[in-house]
Amino acid sequence: MSTVSKFSKLPRWINRPLQCPYEGATVLQTSRFNKGTSYPSEERDAFKLHGLLPPNVQTLDEQVQRAYQQYSSRDDDLAKNTFMASMKAQNEVLYFRLLQTHLKEMFSIIYTPTEGDAIENYSRLFRKPEGCFLNIRDQHSIESHLSQFGNEEDIDYIVVSDGEEILGIGDQGVGGILISVAKLVITTLCAGIHPARQLPVVLDCGTNNEGLLKDELYLGLRQHRARGKEYDEFVDRFVQSARKRFPRAYIHFEDFGLSNAKRILDKYQSQIPCFNDDIQGTGCVTLAAMMAALHVSQVPMEDVRVVIFGSGTAGTGIADQVADTIATETHRPKDEASKQIWCIDKPGLLFKSMADKLTPAQTPFAREDSEWPEAKQNDLLSVIQNVKPHVLIGTSTKPGAFTEEVIREMAKHVERPIVFPLSNPTRLHEAQPKDLYEWTDGRALVATGSPFPPVEFGGVKYDIAECNNSTCFPGIGLGAVLSRSRLVSKKMLVAAVEALKARSPALEDPNKPLLPDVEDVREISVDIAAAVIKCSVDEGLALEEGIPSEDTELREWIRAQMWEAVYRPLVKP
What predicted TM-score, i.e. pTM, was given to this entire model? Predict the structure, then answer.
């Protein structure tokens, strides 16, 4: 049976023609239908495009070549980011094909670190709105505002941010809409989530960024952030309205503040299919890298000692994933598994006696005071000296925190120090990879939070693994969307981690990176989606009917529903 006959009735089947209700200039002004100079003669006739375009019909590849020349002529990264945003507004297919063609080069332009610059300058660079803007002063209109973006079957994937903790640059208020937009670009690019079936959302509840509040061009609410009951009611009204309007949609929470991120996830993850990338995505990709490194270093999970430096949303998210995995693999309670993790934040090592100064996410990882005699210091170096960790993870945004003294101390006690400086952007990294190899005589196993060039040490070239959430969260979302899973369970996340780990080049060669390259991400997303879907079915969470049970057919079924950047034939409704 052909792929066409097997899958052509699926609502997301990628090969059917595109129904276009417009004619003339309106077609060209609509990003979804615009093909620029690529319309064939019959479409120029049918949609009254003659006279609106030069006569030469070009291929998509020729358009990509021209667009890349224009992109390359821009003077700096922010100008390139702005150019790409303009292209996305003009021609959706060309935008994504250009990105796919030059993925490694452009990834840092459309996402971190350059997207952070674009978000900081959102109100000054603003040209055209994109996404859904909801504000806390107009809560009663949330449902009607959402209704402008389609009917109940139209949206698969929602990314929502309140803009409080953006990409290591903090509170950006209404500019947070751009992180929702960027994350959805990545879901399309990396996992084929249909761009027409996505919705970026910002929840504007004010900002505590005084620079924005004093900026006469700032486009968001001019008030300090709402907190407490008013804030919680706003978030809940959004979640309930989104689920009512788009009952099939998966909700991805992004860049919420430290005091809100974990408790919001905890509240809704047992009710709806939802995900927090800063907590779960970061945890999954870091855990996959760590498990690959433990395979290389031959340290069993039951013995591993982990120090996490920086216990905010990302750090505690990683700790949570690690604890879940230790508990699962060793068949021990999670609170016992958590004792293999030492978390450090601004006050130093976290202790139970800090009580109400701890966030809900930090509390499970705080140590008993009796474990740590008063005479001992609780700074990073002292913790390394006493714990002798196999793994050191940085999510502190404190540049240079992993000093030579710290790393050499760690390397005294373990054969293969596993060191992950993950803070973004690059200028906030806790250490440089070249230093880590030098200070450990080439023994370190390294993964970073941003791309770094290869390092040469002792005549060996080491490619640096990047703990890029984009190799993980899009595949998890794809699996949840296609299976219509009622929830995103812990077992589904573990399945995703195992699928990503299985792709680690270091499993075949210990000098290779701990994680696969982002250029392979679409096939990685197929692996992850297949693992997530199987787990959802096994747990009785999948609501979609007709999911293939055989592995090869399941992968075909997944690929048949992954959007690709190609021009589809246009037809009239």
Answer: 0.93
AA identity, residue 282: T
CA angle 109, 111, 117 (to 5 degrees): 75
User: Domain residues for 50?
Assistant: 3-107
Is residue 202 within 8 A of residue 177, CB to CB? The reply is yes
Q: Which two tokens stand for residue 269?
A: 């993850």
**Tens digits of per-residue pLDDT, 148-161?**
999 999 999 999 99
Residues 456 and 314 in one domain: yes
Rounded average pLDDT over 525-550: 97
CB 283 within 8 A of CB 322: yes
Residue type, 453: P
In this structure, how many other beta carbons lie within 10 angstroms of the beta carbon of residue 375? 5
Q: Are strands 460-462 and 455-457 parallel, antiparallel or unpaired?
A: antiparallel
Known binding residues are 254-255, 278, 424, 468
SS3 assignment, position 359: coil
Q: What is the DSSP string of 394-421?
A: E-S--TT-S-HHHHHHHHHH-SS-EEEE
Predicted pLDDT of residue 407: 98
425 preceded by cis ω (within 30°)? yes
Which of 107, 126, 149 is the last residue in one of the domains? 107
Distance CA 552, CA 56 (A): 42
Pairwise CA distance, residues 87 & 100, whole Å: 14
**What is the DSSP code string of 427-465?**
GG-SS-HHHHHHHTTT--EEEESS----EEETTEEEPPE
Examine the domain organization and report whether 449 and 324 are in the same domain: yes
Determine the distance from the C-alpha atom of residue 514 to the mean position of all C-alpha atoms in its chain, rounded to a whole number: 18
Distance from C-alpha of 158 to C-alpha of 245, rounded to nearest angstrom: 12
Cβ neighbours, 10 Å, residue 354 = 16
Cα-based torsion angle of the residue sequence 249, 98, 286, 524 in order, rounded to the nearest 10 degrees: 70
Q: Are 502 and 471 in contact (CB under 8 A)?
A: no
Catalytic residues: 111, 183
Residues belonging to the binding site for (S)-malate are 424, 468
User: What is the token pair recorded at 358?
Assistant: 């701890």
Residue 239: CATH number of its domain: 3.40.50.10380
Closest CA to 249 of 276, 272, 229: 272
Tell me which residue of 80, 167, 174, 77 sits closest to 124, measured CA to CA: 174
Tokens encoding 233: 């009611």
Question: Does residue 50 sit within a domain?
Answer: yes
Contact 464, 508 (CB under 8 A): no
The answer to whether residue 543 sits within a structural domain is no
Asked whether the predicted pLDDT for residue 483 surpasses 70, the reply is yes
- In-domain check, residue 547: no
> Which residue's structure tokens are 């009663």?
140
What gap in Å lies between CA 324 and CA 411, rounded to an integer? Answer: 27
Give residue 329's pLDDT band: very low, low, confident or very high (50, 70, 90). confident
3-state secondary structure of 535: helix
